[in-house]
Specification:
With about 270 residues, the chain is an all-alpha fold. It has helices at about 1-25, 30-55, 65-85, 95-125, 135-155, 160-170, 180-185, 190-205, 210-240, 240-265. The chain starts with a helix and ends with a helix.
Length: about 270
Amino acid sequence: MRQLTRNAAVTIVAIAALFWIVGQYETALRDPRLLDGWILAAAMMAQLSYHVRKQLPALTLGRAASWLKLHVYAGYFVIAAFLMHTSFSLPETSLEWVLWILFMVVAVSGIFGLFLTRSIPARLQHVSADQVTFEQIGAARARLAGEVDGLMLNSVKNAASAALSDYYADHLYGYFRKPQHVGAHLRGSRYPLQAMCDDLDRLESHPNSKAEELLEKLKAHVVAKFDLDHQYALQGLQHAWLFIHIPATYCLIAMSVLHTMVVYAYSSGVR
C-alpha cells in the first residue's frame, strides 16, 4: 500500500507539473499544442519501450515487474497529456478522429488488461486441478481425454455400467476433447459442472461396486476437465486483449508520425 501511494503521488505530481508547464507556455503567447504534443509523443515512445523490454528478457534491463509498474503509471500520464493536447474536446478532421479512436482503443484496452492481470490470478487460485500454463493446456486436455478413454474401455470389458458407457459416448466424449462452457467460466459459474455430476448420479439407481468405482473416477475426470477449461477461458482472455492493445499501439505510433508531418507541413506554409 505504501508503494502504491508513493507511485500514485509521483504520477499526480507529474501530471500537475505538465499542466503548469503547458499553462506557462501558453501564457507566453506560444502555441501549447506543440509543447504538449511533443511531451505526449515522448511519453508514448517511453510506453513502447515496455514492449521492447518484454521481447528481450535475456538482457539485464531491470525487473519485468518494475517495468510493468512504470508502464502502468506512465500510461495514466499519457492519458492526461492526451486530454490536454486535445483540449478535452472531440476531433474535427478525419485524421484527428483516427488518432482519437486509436488512442481510446489503446487506453481502454490497456486499462482492461490491467484489470485482467490483477483479477485473473486470484480467480485461478480457486481451481481444484493443478494450474498449468496456457501453452500446456492442450497437452493436459489430451492427456485427460486419453485417461478417460482407457477408463471407459476397461469398463466395457468388465461390464461395469452400460448406462455410464452410453452417457460418456453421447455426452462426454466431445466434452473431453475441446474447451467447453467458456461463457460460464468467464462468469465464474459452476452450474454446467453441477449439471453433469447430477446427470451421472442419476444414471445408476442401484450401482454395484464396479459401477460405483467407475462413477467416482469419471466424475473426478469431469471435474478436472472443467477446471482445465476454467484455466483456458481465463488465461485465454488474459492473452486475447493483447491482440487488440499491441496492434492498436503500433497503428497509433504510425498515425502520430503522420500527424506530426502534417502539422509541421501546414505550419511551414506547405500546401
